[in-house]
Amino acid sequence: MSQRRWYQGLKASEGMTLIEIMVVVAIIGMITALVSVSVMSFLAEARIKSTNIQIDAFESALKQFKRVHGSYPTSEQGLEALVENPGSLKDYPEEGYLEELPLDAWGEEFIYRSPGESGHRYEIVSKGPDKEEGTEDDLTSYQQRKKED
pTM, whole model, 2 decimals? Predict the structure, then answer.
């Protein structure tokens, strides 16, 4: 008889109550929310770093352009001058200074000004996450140089 009672007691405690299931689901939901916030923050930071790396690549290509041609491309020539000869520039490399013009991490074209608005010889601007120029989240070559100093 004692074996039978033990078996019945085991059988009664095998399942989970609705409240226990709800608690488990709530805990899983909270963990998911915490992880997704961390992932979103990481992705936002990665996009900023990626865009800053692209700005650095443009600056390297612009320095090569200036070394060969004596000046930076004009605003009218734009960054396109790094991909193909903007006119009849002598000694322009057949492959250009860049293979192609990448977009920033938010799928927008970079803005190039020469001279730059900040008083520098040139300025490269990404509109940043909000995709609007002139807002606080813009990333610029000027900011890059300022961080390096």
Answer: 0.72
